[in-house]
Design a protein that fits this description.
The complex is a heterodimer. Chain A is mostly helical. Chain A has one domain. Chain A contains 12 helices and no strands. Chain B starts with a strand and ends with a helix. The chains are: A mainly alpha, B alpha/beta. Chain A: It holds the Pfam family ABC2_membrane_6.
């Protein structure tokens, strides 16, 4: 518990410093916000265009697909804020900044996550919440008192899945000298999880559920609220899968750190 | 109590072999070959608390690798390792709270924010109380004269200024051991002296154990009571600096300039009975080599006291540490060269056989 309190205190401190630096580069902050939103907007537009040609996708209506997409944006924004590991290999392994991290008394992954926090991504989460809300009314879904609570738990589960997947991916840099092109590949597969999984064939469905469980960051948790497509079992599995994948990522990381070999000099 | 206790410490790296050419690259794609490089070869040493120890060696001798194992960054391949009572890589987070680390080539500070903000952040990371932090910071800022720099962002500091800030950053939590990896690299002579003085004071007043690697032997002469010299992953010398000089030093040389032309015979006669060696540099100049155990003044008095010689100038040369160390490095690498030569010979042998085949 004290460890958590300590990490939270560190988080406050790092965010404070982030704000101080970003205030000097204000334009940068807004450019990033706009870029993030544009990215989501193009995806939404893609959905709208598809539905101009067909009334339903594998039994899913436009509003339902948009609902799933809105849900996806919430954990994705949180993930992007805290687990910004895109340049991990280059900055910490190749340039050897990991040396510095390892001489400090806090968990190495916590330090790296905090050094790279990216609050602009969080705006995407709010936009996602708004999209989900509007689709909710369009679909005329009932609202239960426990829905916000479930959404909260599902979101945490989904964030943990992302965290676990990308942490394990970043940990590969500890084992292999040359960072491989696996991150773009992963990114592409992850994008499939944003759409209803029922529209894919069996192979992809299996892949997205049990191998790279990105379906748990979109359609499974979102369908809890969509009565018609509800699959209670799969929905409730979200936090479980989150904990398993998250723990796996942390385990791979902790093992990887012991293989760190430093850079030059 | 021992600050650092190292026994049979070894670190091996697996290095990928890249084969030549396009076909080689293709082969690498499917089957990688690795060679094992041993950077640190079963070294043992112990450093008691409160000692300043210099760790020297050529580039690639394994200095940095050792330091990184001692600070918990790298996990050793084998051997025993205990620093401050901890096994560094096992209880890393707990262990690093008791040590300070300065890497001359890498900054501990945040690039974009003011120096003081970096210090505040480190205070949180190291869980130093506000009062301790204040007291410590005031003391350090005063001794290193950083008052004017505190609010500037790190990227706008000169190297010398940054280095002084790095020292503060490494010492805010009052570590009992300080590791310095080339702390004076690239600094001008004034800053170098300042930093040396500061380190000496730190050691004297707080009893901080200091282990530093350096290429600048003046750092060693100014600071260290003990030197560990590394070559190709092995310790080739471990002991006092004076002993090092005595063991490897080649005595002293005195050069005399005479007003009249001289002959070797004449000057040799002056020091008859002493184990010295004369050389004639030119018509008016002669040099005498005096072994360490002999008194220079004895030789001097004999030459100067000789009535038939008129001396216009005298110079005394002492072999300095630089020369000694260069000599040791050279003799160390001379062995390596011999081994490499043999290797080459062995490699050459199949060539005539190939010639026969063709």
């Amino acid at each position: 518990m004290t460890k958590w309190a300590f990490n939270m205190a560190l988080f406050r401190e790092y965010i404070g410093n982030y704000m101080k630096t970003k205030l000097t580069y204000r334009a940068d902050f807004w450019v990033e916000v706009v870029a993030d939103l544009m990215f989501s907007a193009t995806n939404l537009i893609f959905i709208f265009i598809v539905f101009q040609h067909t009334p339903a996708l594998g039994n899913w209506s436009e509003a339902e697909v948009v609902f799933v997409y809105g849900y996806f944006m919430i954990p994705y924004g949180i993930f992007g804020t805290f687990v910004n590991l895109w340049n991990f290999s280059e900055r910490y392994i190749v340039k050897g900044e990991m040396d510095r991290i390892l001489t400090r008394p806090a968990h190495s992954l916590v330090q790296i996550m905090l050094e790279n926090v990216d609050p602009p991504s969080l705006i995407g989460s709010f936009v996602g919440l708004a999209i989900m809300g509007s689709a909710w009314t369009t679909l005329g879904l009932p609202f239960h008192w426990y829905d916000p609570l479930v959404l909260f738990v599902m979101t945490i589960g989904s964030v943990l899945i992302y965290f676990g997947m990308y942490t394990s991916l970043a940990s590969i840099s500890f084992y292999s000298d040359a960072p491989t092109g696996i991150v773009p590949l992963m990114f592409n597969i992850q994008n499939y999880g944003r759409y209803p999984i029922q529209i894919y064939n069996k192979g992809i469905r299996f892949l997205l559920t049990w191998v790279l469980p990105f379906a748990f960051v979109g359609v499974y948790p979102a369908s809890f609220f969509l009565g018609r497509h509800g699959d209670l079992g799969m929905s409730l599995l979200t936090p479980v899968v989150g904990i398993v994948v998250g723990a796996f990522g942390l385990w791979v990381w902790n093992r990887g750190v012991h293989r760190y070999r430093g850079a030059g000099s | 109590m021992l600050a650092i206790d190292v026994a049979e410490l070894r670190k091996q790296f697996k290095v990928q072999k890249n084969r030549e050419g396009l076909s080689g690259a293709l082969k690498d794609l499917f089957k990688r070959e690795h060679t094992v490089v041993t950077a640190v070869k079963d070294i043992s040493f112990q450093i008691p608390q409160g000692e300043i120890c210099g760790y020297i060696g050529e580039n690639g001798a394994g200095k940095s690798t050792t330091i990184k194992m001692l600070t918990g960054i790298l996990v050793p391949t084998s051997g025993k390792l205990q620093v401050n009572g901890y096994v560094p890589y096992k209880d890393r987070e707990e262990f690093v709270r008791g040590i300070g680390v300065v890497f001359g080539q890498r900054s501990q500070l945040w690039w974009d924010i003011g120096v003081i903000e970096s210090f505040r952040l480190l205070r949180k990371v190291y869980r130093v109380s506000e009062t301790d932090f204040r007291r410590r910071l005031d003391e350090l800022v005063e001794t290193l004269q950083l008052q004017d720099l505190l609010n500037r962002p790190v990227r706008k500091l000169s190297l010398g200024q940054r280095m002084r800030c790095e020292l503060v950053a490494a010492l805010l939590h009052q570590p009992s051991i300080l590791f310095l990896d080339e702390p004076t690299i690239g600094l001008d002579i004034v800053v170098k002296t300042e930093i040396r003085e500061f380190l000496k004071r730190l050691n004297r007043e707080h009893g901080t154990t200091i282990l530093l690697t350096t290429h600048d032997l003046q750092d060693i002469e100014a600071l260290c009571s003990r030197v560990i010299m590394l070559d190709d992953g092995r310790i080739i010398y471990d002991g006092g600096l004076d002993e090092l000089k005595q063991r490897w030093g080649k005595g002293r040389e005195v050069q005399f300039q005479f007003t009249d032309p001289i002959r070797l015979m004449e000057v040799q006669k002056l020091t008859g009975g002493l184990a010295v060696r004369w050389t004639r540099e030119n018509e008016f100049t002669a040099k005498v080599w005096i072994p360490r155990e002999l008194n220079v003044s004895e030789v001097l008095s004999r030459v100067v006291g000789a009535p038939e010689m008129d001396i216009s100038d005298i110079k005394i040369f002492e072999t300095n540490t630089d020369e000694i160390v260069r000599e040791i490095y050279q003799s160390g690498s001379a062995e390596v060269n011999a081994a490499a030569l043999q290797e080459e010979k062995r490699a050459e042998e199949p060539v005539p056989a190939g010639g026969v085949r063709s």
